[in-house]
């Protein structure tokens, strides 16, 4: 076994070389693998997705910056009010802070076509991780939600010796595992792989998906939601938004016309863009720029939606140098085409528009809670009278940051006993924040 | 006429006697002395065998009386032993010489650009209107890092919506010097000696006005070009003509010419007839001698020698960008990878359709590979090795129209260079007789009575018009593709489809067939 | 609210724990619980309660699907209402769309959805809150008054009538506005406008007043790009680099000033403001300087 790779897959998985690539900041093949090897086509759903599945149509995000957790019902209701922006072929939500009992474990949400895929993936997970807990993702039968895959979640830990054996960082290890499962296990798809967060998505209207996954029973400080209007087939649950990797999740409205070069740029750094949807590149670009290159989130957003040369030429010297360098180095990361995206992270949320604002995006703030959505009415549905509301400028990110203290407090609170909780329960917990 | 040769004239000059006003201008204009003006009958008498079909006489005849026809002698038809090949054998039998020719490969090899189609956006993604909405063509050539280090000064916003934080962010990474082009089209190297000084002047003025770059070629940089030196790339070729330290200081970048598409693997040859006083001063060789560029640089016999030369030039010029020009041959991807690892900041790929002032026909027509394949393989190879950011790719060799530029960029080039097209803009008719030095248009000759026919101001405006038109057409293409910045097309093979190409070629190009 | 009854809700601890849901092959066919209808955005046929008093009717739009709501509005007007008030509006689309009833006023309390007053022909439509995108899309005639902000693409292809916005507007406002003979569309914005204002304009008037606390630029970049007829009056400074290639900025003439005064007077009357303060700041006139801006760009 390659001491730096993650080794082989399950017993019935297709035998393929695992080629973990590029974990450092530099581009390049991972030491120990052969350069120039062909990327294996993703076997699982070649039939379903020969074509690229295009971006969807309505999104929202809500983030309580004090760390107080809100029910997922808010996100569900907000997306329901934008019903007509989708066509029922995709909906999804991402919640942060939803697993307060196990906040330090990576939680993998898996979608399986069949038991064979489940067995193969579990073999792989047990070999490379310590599976602390695994269980089916709770669901409710909802009319309109059909043909759902097997939905399972795993809470995972990694032994230190394993990490030092592979010489990978914790996050890179997880990324490798996710890429391996998605690429090599037929019929398995990792919907989310972060700590204390999860993505719930599938084929259906967002409110149906939300009811199906019972997201009103979860509480988190950040929720994002999405409803899709895809113009190519999918019957595939994995194609819905959000796209998540580690604790980055993206919901995206629009289409990326620069996808071809964004994808090839990411492949240079070891990401495998196998999901045939352009939203995938946005998630990987943020992982590359924020985690591996350590860029501040505002700069990463400016790389994706860069100012025009005519505006850069008018900037003061220092700024001009910075933005010229940014466009030179990250030109292949520029997202061209109409888009509005909401990025969820463990410590906040960022919303961004393309540079000539071809897709709608509205923001609002009420106290500590920040809202963004494709339509203002979707915000008013869950917050009738926000203190301020505005339309962000093209290419200007809207950034919300959840305080560390607030998050710790929210996690700690759930550790109280049930009795203590009942006693400590204040009216606030029963009422959805933001509603007057 | 007495028999002197088997070889019939290629063309026939046809003069309409009714339209001819007997001014004699045709005789005065022709560089090959096709016409003698019969003073008695007051009419021009052509010697068809000398005609190059350059159309100078046709253009300048006030009566529009002249027409140049093919001398279409009927040979017994053979697709194999065609008339051209028969004539070539005669020529060699009569002279024992190596056939020489000019310009680029004219054989019917597959033109891959003509089998690639571009995408357009509909419904799900809007196309962009290039006339009214911003369309960015600015391109930077040079070495770029893989990532940037940015420092955040001052307190970063904790809670709440952060204002534009760019005011408190500072760039820490020091970038290498770049060439800034306002359009992804630049001019390829054509040496002073193979072309006239007025051509260089025209290109220099055009490059300055367009915000792009011209290349001196291997003939050195004439002093008259000094005002434009910020837009000139100086070439250091195997013959080292005109290369001294002031030359290296003058240009915006230095290009090491390893090979060119029209004659891969062989050196250059400038006949002594084309070395007049000015050329000899610029090249720093004696007048009237043949200027021979050896095939290899005699200090580059292996790749580490190239690295040594590159860094020598960097030291000599204060680390200007160094470009390396190579011809596209079979293992161009491996060569390119080696060149980039040797320290080149720009790699210039010259395909087999590239033009030249003089090259043996056998080399020009049978050696090399298409630039489309070269771009695709070099780009992919550099990406596979993770070094694509270290050098920019410039593609050249038969770039004939703006669509070729768009397709080349989609395949992976950062910019395109034109040579033949720029000369055509100045009047060249691609008659392929550059090596004779008799160019009636004053382009690839040094005879003063011919070179003065090219007014540099006029030549510059022609070339500027051409590049502007191509840039606007490129903007239309980008708009249809739904992108408003050239970097979103660069390397995006997803926007190309092949039509009528075999699967292997498509795989090498990384392009899907139309329909998928 | 959503889903099951209250008993099951109380039994569930408030963090997500395991429930034994059977796994296995997917279910096919229309089984399961009907998803709850909880917003006006989801399809539904229940009408809003209407209370009439003479020619005035108040409709409670809470939870009413746009299609049902618009049918209801149309019926009330056909039945003789000249004043329709809509309460509790959150995101219903197409309000006022295609309404061809001059002399009718529709008042919206809440945030209406996209394409408000699209293709509208005659009525007055007042929104007491913010509006969203696509307001007055290809509007033919009538008056739209927005007491808050409005979104992008306002007045796209507008052919006549007026839109008054108290607050700010977004991108591509007044794009493709057209005037023909006696039909002159008018857009007045109280706050600021973003990029591509008046793009492709072929007639009509756009006025931007820059009132309000923001202090930023009154208009964005690419103002009037592609404009070939019509005029814009901007209260405040407009830099050269903000203008599209086809337009120029200049001082308004006497005729322009008179027209500006008229426009501002009517706008302030509707919005309940004093016109004097507005007229104190100088205006800039933006106009196209050629009707064939691309004549030399193409060769045949």
Can you offer a commentary on this structure?
The complex is a heterotrimer of chains A (436), B (516) and C (300). Chain A is an alpha+beta fold and 436 residues long. Chain A contains 14 helices and 18 strands. In chain A, helix 6 (259-268) runs parallel beside helix 7 (279-292). The longest helix of chain A has 15 residues, at 170-184. The termini of chain A are far apart. By secondary structure, chain B is of the alpha/beta class. Chain B has 2 domains: 11-97, Alpha-Beta Plaits, CATH 3.30.70; 179-513, Alpha-Beta Barrel (TIM Barrel), CATH 3.20.20.70. Chain B contains 15 helices and 23 strands. Chain B has helices at residues 25-29, 56-60, 83-95, 197-210, 245-250, 277-283, 303-317, 332-341, 361-366, 371-384, 402-411, 420-425, 448-451, 456-481, 503-509, and strands at 11-15, 35-38, 43-46, 66-70, 100-101, 116-118, 139-141, 150-152, 169-171, 179-181, 185-187, 214-215, 232-236, 253-257, 268-270, 291-293, 322-327, 346-350, 359-360, 392-396, 415-418, 496-498, 512-513. In chain B, 50% of the residues are buried. Chain C has 300 residues and is an alpha/beta fold. Chain C has a domain at 149-290: Glutamate synthase, alpha subunit, C-terminal domain (Pectate Lyase C-like, 3 Solenoid). Chain C is built from 4 helices and 12 strands; from the N terminus they run αββαβββββββββααβ. Chain C has helices at residues 6-11, 66-78, 254-271, 275-280; strands at 50-53, 56-60, 83-90, 105-111, 121-127, 141-146, 162-165, 186-189, 202-208, 229-235, 247-250, 283-288. In chain C, strands 1-2-3-4-5-6-7-8-9-10-12-11 form a 12-stranded mixed β-sheet, sandwiched between helices. In chain C, a hairpin with a 2-residue loop joins strand 1 and strand 2 (56-60). The longest helix of chain C has 18 residues, at 254-271. Chain C is globular, with a radius of gyration of 24 Å. The termini of chain C are far apart. Mean pLDDT of chain C is 86; it is low at 1-29. Chains in contact: A-B, A-C, B-C. At the A-B interface, helix 6, helix 8, helix 10 and strand 18 of A face strand 9 and helix 10 of B.
